[in-house]
């Protein structure tokens, strides 16, 4: 076990550097890459969004990612306690831990609705598996059924509150199982088995989509930069997406960094994590768009792109139902390694704060997430008219699910990230920071500059525009 702390019981840790990298990539790669990124790119005009997204990852996401892993690795504790330790060693107020306290809260809230969407993924696995039995191996999916039938699968799922809650609980239960088994025994296990399987499926489906679908149209769409499309809204959508996709602003990377040993070069590792996450987002675009274009469907379907357009597109593809099963299994794997990270953040804190074991902590957090998750699931049907934040103009129209999504994305994540930048860039002892970051020379200077100036300013812009829109 790496990184035992002063006198306390030996802390859990990753069993190797590779395990840390895979788990962190597992946390980053998820519904954000597969569901949100293509949807955002499609809604925000393709190439210009994609290019600006890559810039955001490199100049804003990556510096914050390094800042978070660095705090965790130095602190070797739950996220708030790690921040507190770095603060005290730097002669600063221990109250800086509030930045991670917000993160823990945000991770818990995101977990609750992330598992609801994970439940939709489970539903589509079921739909395609049963279709596979009916239409056989080689044919397209849903033979003989009209496209509108396939598109209405999602609204009919949304109409079924009981099923939505059940699927949410199922996804959460699987997440709980792995988190309860511990860092090296559970979290690391899912990452080391599911991430390679995920990559293999992603590459296979992308090759298939490229070979049979509209490849050149896709490449032109994703990599032609029409700068007139780069409006302030598009830019903000790109920064927000980069943050969500890299799992930043929710103390997740602080928590995972705290299980890393001193032999890990955090600068290099952060670069690997950010590159892998971005590569997966781009490949997800290259996977989904050829299929959608070939079927003559719209790329700007937003959230419906993955759950409605894609299933329709599978209809006429040879092996369509098989591809459907493979595709949604792949999405489930990616989502699970992210939900595991989301559950681990509050679980690690609960264990430490109340000095109780991993199993009871994980169960308590999961029960809380199940309650909020059920309310989110029901906000598509039984509770559709409930406006929990009706008194706040920005969130006045939001149902329970949208309110949690909005509050975490527009408030918690940007504020948490701004405070992280200020803390690492201005407050923490520079010698401590320098000894942890694994960077030297020009790269180090560049990173300092970005964390101190560019990142907080860009994040303040997101916060202001996000709240006023
Ligand atoms: N990055 C994950 C995704 O893209 C979501 C996530 C956010 C996971 C924050 C953990 C922490 O799906």
TrEMBL record:
<feature type="transmembrane region" description="Helical">
    <location>
        <begin position="47"/>
        <end position="66"/>
    </location>
</feature>
<keyword id="KW-0472">Membrane</keyword>
<feature type="transmembrane region" description="Helical">
    <location>
        <begin position="98"/>
        <end position="125"/>
    </location>
</feature>
<feature type="transmembrane region" description="Helical">
    <location>
        <begin position="192"/>
        <end position="214"/>
    </location>
</feature>
<dbReference type="InterPro" id="IPR037272">
    <property type="entry name" value="SNS_sf"/>
</dbReference>
<feature type="transmembrane region" description="Helical">
    <location>
        <begin position="449"/>
        <end position="468"/>
    </location>
</feature>
<feature type="transmembrane region" description="Helical">
    <location>
        <begin position="279"/>
        <end position="299"/>
    </location>
</feature>
<keyword id="KW-0812">Transmembrane</keyword>
<dbReference type="InterPro" id="IPR000175">
    <property type="entry name" value="Na/ntran_symport"/>
</dbReference>
<keyword id="KW-1133">Transmembrane helix</keyword>
<dbReference type="Pfam" id="PF00209">
    <property type="entry name" value="SNF"/>
</dbReference>
<feature type="transmembrane region" description="Helical">
    <location>
        <begin position="411"/>
        <end position="428"/>
    </location>
</feature>
<dbReference type="GO" id="GO:0016020">
    <property type="term" value="C:membrane"/>
</dbReference>
<feature type="transmembrane region" description="Helical">
    <location>
        <begin position="161"/>
        <end position="180"/>
    </location>
</feature>
<feature type="transmembrane region" description="Helical">
    <location>
        <begin position="234"/>
        <end position="259"/>
    </location>
</feature>
<dbReference type="InterPro" id="IPR047218">
    <property type="entry name" value="YocR/YhdH-like"/>
</dbReference>
<keyword id="KW-0813">Transport</keyword>
<feature type="transmembrane region" description="Helical">
    <location>
        <begin position="319"/>
        <end position="343"/>
    </location>
</feature>
<feature type="transmembrane region" description="Helical">
    <location>
        <begin position="355"/>
        <end position="380"/>
    </location>
</feature>
<feature type="transmembrane region" description="Helical">
    <location>
        <begin position="19"/>
        <end position="35"/>
    </location>
</feature>
<protein>
    <submittedName>
        <fullName>Neurotransmitter:Na+ symporter, NSS family</fullName>
    </submittedName>
</protein>
């Amino acid at each position: 076990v790496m990184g035992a702390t002063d006198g306390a019981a030996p802390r859990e840790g990753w069993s190797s550097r590779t395990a840390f990298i895979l788990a962190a990539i597992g946390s980053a790669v998820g519904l954000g890459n597969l569901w949100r990124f293509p949807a955002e790119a499609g809604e925000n005009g393709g190439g210009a969004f994609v290019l600006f997204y890559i810039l955001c990852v490199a100049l804003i996401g990556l510096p914050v990612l390094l800042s978070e892993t660095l705090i965790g690795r130095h602190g070797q504790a739950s996220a708030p306690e790690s921040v507190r330790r770095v603060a005290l060693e730097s002669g600063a107020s221990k109250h800086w831990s509030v930045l991670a306290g917000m993160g823990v809260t945000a991770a818990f809230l995101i977990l609750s609705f992330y598992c609801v969407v994970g439940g939709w993924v489970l539903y589509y696995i079921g739909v395609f598996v049963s279709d596979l039995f009916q239409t056989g191996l080689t044919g397209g999916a849903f033979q003989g059924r009209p496209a509108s039938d396939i598109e209405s699968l999602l609204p009919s799922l949304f109409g079924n509150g009981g099923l939505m809650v059940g699927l949410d609980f199922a996804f959460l239960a699987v997440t709980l199982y792995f988190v309860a088994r511990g860092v090296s025994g559970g979290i690391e296990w899912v990452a080391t088995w599911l991430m390679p399987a995920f990559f293999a499926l992603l590459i296979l489906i992308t090759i298939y989509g490229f070979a049979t679908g509209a490849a050149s149209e896709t490449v032109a769409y994703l990599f032609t930069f029409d700068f007139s499309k780069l409006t302030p809204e598009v830019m903000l959508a790109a920064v927000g997406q980069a943050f969500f996709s890299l799992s930043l602003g929710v103390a997740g990377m602080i928590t995972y960094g705290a299980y890393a040993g001193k032999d890990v070069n955090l600068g290099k590792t952060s670069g690997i994590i950010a590159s892998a996450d971005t590569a997966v987002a781009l490949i997800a675009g290259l996977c989904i768009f050829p299929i959608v274009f070939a079927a003559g469907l719209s790329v700007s379907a937003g959230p419906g792109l993955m759950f409605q357009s894609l299933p329709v597109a599978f209809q006429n593809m040879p092996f369509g139902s098989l591809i459907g099963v493979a595709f949604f299994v792949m999405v489930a794997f990616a989502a699970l390694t992210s939900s595991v990270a989301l559950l681990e953040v509050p679980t690690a804190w609960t264990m430490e704060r109340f000095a109780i074991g991993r199993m009871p902590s994980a169960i308590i957090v999961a029960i809380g997430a199940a309650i909020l998750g059920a309310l989110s699931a029901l906000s598509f049907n039984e509770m559709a008219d409930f406006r929990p934040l009706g008194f706040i103009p920005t969130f006045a129209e939001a149902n329970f699910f949208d309110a949690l999504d909005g509050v975490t994305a527009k408030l918690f994540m940007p504020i948490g990230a701004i405070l992280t930048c200020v803390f690492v860039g201005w407050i923490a002892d520079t010698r401590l920071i320098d000894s942890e970051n694994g960077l030297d020379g020009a790269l180090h200077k560049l990173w300092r500059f970005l964390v101190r100036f560019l990142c907080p300013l860009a994040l303040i812009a997101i916060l202001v525009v996000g709240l006023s829109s």
